[in-house]
Design goal:
The complex is a heterodimer. In chain A, helix 3 crosses helix 10 (about 235-260), helix 11 packs across helix 12 and helix 14 (about 335-355) runs antiparallel to helix 15 (about 360-385). The longest helix of chain A is centred in the middle third of the chain and has 30 residues, at about 185-215. A two-stranded antiparallel ribbon of chain A has the order 1-2. Chain A is built from 15 helices and 2 strands. Chain A is mainly α. Chain B has 4 helices and 9 strands. The chains are: A mainly alpha, B alpha+beta.
Chain lengths: ~400, ~180
């Protein structure tokens, strides 16, 4: 072995002295980021979300090159992408289903954080950044759904923007401002396209803050206890390879949907061009908004429904203080664990209710589900934290595995 | 990864299962990435409807000698000039040694009366002047490009200026005596 440095090594060191970007990446997702050695596959979903964000930006940029943000041409330009543009159908189906997969992955990521108490001190700001990303995702997805200018695009835009008309005194003025006119029309489409292109890059910036905030305390882990240096392994190669495997599995499912079930999560009415004079008989948002849509419709009062719907997300900001338990992981919290799974089921129930007409049984279940949703945060979490006796925590991550010989 | 892999590699005489997994994973991942990049880039190529616009038909009926028309083919102007007898003679009798891009006039026309050219300067893509009788036609009676001063003769050949080549002759055919299809 020669001790002489190679020319590549010298060039690398020369560059690193001036802009240490490789070293920065190495500290962020490389060999210099020690992660707890017991992370399970639920910890894949942050990386998976990042992969999908990359897919969405890449396909979105190329779709934008063939899209026309004008009320008279938008629908036709999307159909042109599907029929005339080389591989346009792949790009559009990847982008449309990519949005659904982004939400699937992020919902699992959020539930993982809830199960293992990842929002608790010292990770509250990390949690906040995640909620902000979630809110930005919802705004981006909503505006993206408007761009094809089909019937669901148009009436979805009309209904969602009209939520703001519930604001007392200035509601109508705000809605006119959002529309740039007196109805959803070309100015609305233009600004939605501009914002739909802008917001993903804002998301990238907040993802950067999210990862920065993650690296201050380091990753939480399935046991929810502090990981000592002895209980940590380098992110690369251990978690890069684990995440790569998870990415492969996700892409298999993703492309199965893209190629064989590309319209399964869309609504057929959106293949009808927007008609400002006719509302489709059954307006539903994309599936990932359904639980919040169910909460909106659970309340027979316009303003209160809107307030409740926004509160359903905003309440997540104070979750770290509503959960009074010191123990993070549900593994050691027998009562919380039951309530966690009921909460997941409640989310599924609300999703179902959101897709039904708000009458009869779905309305009753939607109201019960809404009540449970808020009770979970405001009543159950604080009370469980006080009453529950957690199981004994292990002294370290290794301790339950490496028991001394008896 | 390299440390562990190389420790095994020393035992296995330069190869190990881990090296194999690493290299095959990187190879498949790279191949997949490249295969994904192709649809993205190919979507920027002309789409099917753009390619289907590639022929244009027009009539030369009614173009008087000395006059010309401009038709659009693939978004570009195509010059169609009904040449006068003296213009044809000037084009046919020029000394090949005087041409930067030597080409006989009869190689550039199907019917000597009608000169059909892509009206895009071969220098940097401006549209040369000369289709209207009031426009400057340069020192050789053909076209003059106002951008950087290229002079073309009555056969559309470059005679002076920075352009490297003659005005391009598009693929075309006379589908009847007076109807031409380009493309």
């Amino acid at each position: 072995m020669s001790t002489e440095k190679s020319i590549w090594r010298k060039a690398y060191e020369w560059h690193e002295e001036r802009l240490p970007i490789i070293g920065f990446l190495d500290h962020t997702i490389g060999t210099k980021y020690p992660a707890p050695k017991n992370l399970n596959y639920w910890w894949n979903f942050g990386s998976l979300a990042l992969v999908i964000l990359g897919i969405m930006i890449a396909t979105g940029i190329f779709l934008a090159m063939n899209y026309t943000p004008h009320a008279d041409h938008a629908f036709d330009s999307v159909e042109r992408i599907m029929r005339e543009v080389n591989y346009g159908w792949v790009l559009r189906y990847m982008h449309a289903n990519g949005a659904s997969f982004f939400f699937i992955v992020v919902y699992i990521h959020i539930f993982r954080g809830m199960y293992y108490g990842s929002y608790k001190a010292p990770r509250e700001v990390l949690w906040w950044m995640g909620i902000i990303i979630f809110l930005l995702m919802m705004a981006t997805a909503f505006m993206g759904y408007v761009l094809p200018w089909g019937q669901m695009s148009f009436w979805g835009a009309t209904v969602i923007t009209n939520l703001f008309s519930a604001i007392p005194l200035v509601g109508d003025e705000i809605v006119t401002f959002l529309w740039g006119g007196f109805s959803v029309d070309n100015p609305t489409l233009n600004r939605f396209f501009a914002l739909h292109y802008l917001l993903p890059f804002v998301i990238v910036a907040v993802v950067f803050l999210h990862i920065w905030a993650l690296h201050i305390p380091g990753s939480n882990n399935p046991l929810g206890i502090e990981a000592t240096p002895a209980d940590k392994i380098p992110f690369h190669p251990y978690y890069t390879s684990k995440d790569a495997f998870g990415t492969g599995v996700m892409l298999l499912v993703f492309f199965a949907v893209v190629f064989w079930l590309p319209n399964s999560m869309g609504h057929p009415d959106n293949y009808t061009p927007a008609n400002p004079l006719v509302t489709p008989p059954h307006i539903v948002p994309e599936w990932y908004f359904l639980p919040f849509y169910a909460i909106l419709r659970a309340v027979p009062d316009k303003l209160l429904g809107v307030i409740l719907m926004f509160s359903a997300i905003l309440i997540l900001f104070v979750l770290p203080w509503l959960d009074t338990a010191r123990v993070r992981s549900a593994t050691f919290r027998p009562i919380f664990k039951v309530f966690f799974w009921i909460f997941v089921a409640d989310g599924v129930l609300l999703t179902w209710c959101g897709a039904q007409l708000p009458e009869g049984l779905p309305l009753v279940l939607g109201r019960l589900g809404t009540a449970w949703y808020f009770l979970h945060f405001i009543v159950f979490l604080p009370v469980i934290g006080w009453l529950e006796t957690p199981k004994p925590l292990p002294a370290s991550i290794s301790e339950p595995v490496i028991k001394p010989a008896e | 990864m390299s440390n562990t892999a190389h420790a095994h590699a020393a035992d296995a005489g330069g190869e190990s299962r881990r090296d194999f997994l690493l290299h095959s994973t990187v190879a498949v991942g790279t191949l997949g990435g490249v295969m994904m990049v192709w649809p993205l880039l190919d979507s920027m190529n002309p789409a099917a409807d753009t390619l289907s616009l590639s022929t244009t038909e027009f009539s030369v009926d009614g173009i008087e000698p000395g006059q010309g028309i401009t038709v659009v083919w693939r978004g570009k102007p195509v010059f169609v000039r009904h040449r006068t007898a003296s213009e044809i003679e000037a084009a046919e009798t020029v000394d090949m040694d005087d041409l930067p891009d030597p080409q006989a006039d009869d190689a550039r026309v199907q019917n000597p009366e009608f000169l059909i050219l892509v009206g895009v300067c071969t220098h940097l893509g401006c549209i040369p002047l000369g289709m209207k009788q009031t426009e400057p036609r340069g020192d050789f009676g053909g076209w003059f490009c106002p951008c950087h001063g290229s002079h073309y003769d009555t056969s559309g050949r470059i005679r002076r200026g920075p352009a490297p080549a003659n005005l391009e002759v598009p693929p075309y055919e006379f589908v009847s005596d007076t109807t031409v299809r380009i493309g």
